[in-house]
Amino acid sequence: MKVIYFAWVREQIGVGEEEVSPPGDVATVAALVHWLAARGGGHREALASPERLRAAVDGVFAPLDASIAGAREVALFPPVTGG
Description:
- It is globular, with a radius of gyration of 12 Å.
- β3 (54-57) and β4 (60-62) form a beta hairpin.
- The chain is built from 3 helices and 5 strands.
- By secondary structure, it is an alpha+beta fold.
- The protein has one domain (2-77): Beta-grasp domain (Ubiquitin-like (UB roll), Roll).
- Strands 2-1-5-3-4 form a 5-stranded mixed β-sheet.
């Protein structure tokens, strides 16, 4: 699965995207975030507060409890603000 990072999430992790193979028990966006954070370094820093993140699964906005079963792509980004 491809994970894409945007804005400060990308800056803290140090890459814009990566291919990952999470274990079978990683079934939701939140579980994926937790698994990625456990990798340490920039991942731990950027993903330490999942409630600060928004996600999209295969291009569709999704809550953190959304399933990632069969997903090809998960995007993680901070909330979008505008004015």
